[in-house]
Design brief:
The chain is built from 7 helices and 5 strands. By secondary structure, the chain is α/β, with parallel strands linked by helices. It folds into 2 domains: 89 residues, Vaccinia Virus protein VP39 (Rossmann fold, 3-Layer(aba) Sandwich), CATH 3.40.50.150; 69 residues, no CATH class. The protein is globular, with a radius of gyration of 19 Å.
Length: 216
């Protein structure tokens, strides 16, 4: 099986967004050479860094800075984990951020955590765990069906207030009540031509079923 981080004719360059651009370019170049796509910091990181900084300019504001809750946060496809580490800098000591990626990318995630220099003395805890979510039988048809079902089970609202090229959405689980209940999975996953009913929703089941990690 080919490495998804090294597709044919891969030709990508580092993203520049740190003040120390030369050093950052060097780090990303090395990471790209070793880990391919996973080694690059992508454009979506910019708006996340802004949104994951306590501020009143966004609507809705980031809800992860409330003092009365303990958070467990999962990032998929973390790579260099830039956004997760930035967020953890503003979280409470009892909060946990789990960065995940393919098993072969774990050294990159772990090194990023080891090199992390948080600016706050009290911050969230960060760990890295391998998670190859949706790595089998993935086709475009299956993924389209998967995201169609995702939109039915979750509510996605855009974030306003930032000047970004990328868009940031807040995703929340629909509230189950007597008036509204979750749709039957057979209706949600009755996909288009060539899609096996219920097939791609197992990606969600596999994902959450993989989170029984020892984080003590």
């Amino acid at each position: 099986m080919s490495d998804p981080n090294f597709p044919p004719n891969l030709n990508i360059s580092p993203l520049l967004f740190y003040n120390d651009e030369d050093a950052d370019q060097s780090r990303q170049k090395i990471a790209i050479k070793t880990y391919g796509i996973a080694g690059r910091v992508w454009e979506a990181t910019r708006p996340l860094l802004e949104y994951f900084t306590p501020s009143t300019q966004f609507e809705p504001p980031c809800s992860l800075f409330q003092e009365d809750q303990v958070y467990r946060i999962l990032e998929l496809g973390s790579g260099q984990s830039v956004a997760s580490l930035h967020l953890a800098d503003y979280l409470k000591e009892e909060d946990l951020v789990v960065t995940t990626d393919l098993p072969e990318v774990m050294p990159l995630c772990e090194q990023s955590i080891a090199d992390w220099a948080p600016s706050n003395s009290k911050h969230g805890r960060v760990i890295a765990q391998p998670l190859a979510w949706g790595d089998t039988s993935r086709t475009l048809a299956l993924e389209e069906s998967f995201f169609d079902s995702f939109s039915l089970y979750f509510h996605m609202a855009p974030v306003r207030g930032g000047h970004w090229d990328a868009k940031v959405f807040i995703c929340k689980r629909w509230t189950v009540s007597e008036e509204w209940t979750l749709p039957d999975i057979k209706d949600v996953m009755n996909g288009g031509k060539g899609v096996l009913r219920g097939r791609s929703f197992t990606l969600v089941d596999d994902l959450f079923g993989s989170l029984e990690w020892d984080i003590s």
